[in-house]
Design brief:
It comes from Streptomyces griseoviridis. This is Membrane protein. By secondary structure, this protein is mostly helical. The chain has two helices and no strands. It has helices at about 1-25, 25-55. α1 packs across α2 (about 25-55). The longest helix has 30 residues, at about 25-55.
């Protein structure tokens, strides 16, 4: 039963993304840019933290 719910959820997300891209490509591009900026910021924060740990937390 959980597998069916997961398949339905994935299907709904895919349909929504396709609808968003078709109806408003500029807004979809903005969402993608926001997502990549978030991933980039998170990776930078992790790198900064690991550098801090490698230097003894000082």
């Amino acid at each position: 039963m959980a597998v069916n719910a997961k398949k339905i959820a994935v299907y709904v997300v895919v349909v929504f993304v396709l609808y968003l891209i078709i109806t408003d490509p500029a807004k979809a591009a903005d969402y993608v840019q926001i997502g990549f900026e978030g991933i980039s910021d998170a990776a930078k924060a992790i790198g900064d933290f690991m550098s801090w740990v490698a230097h003894g937390g000082q």
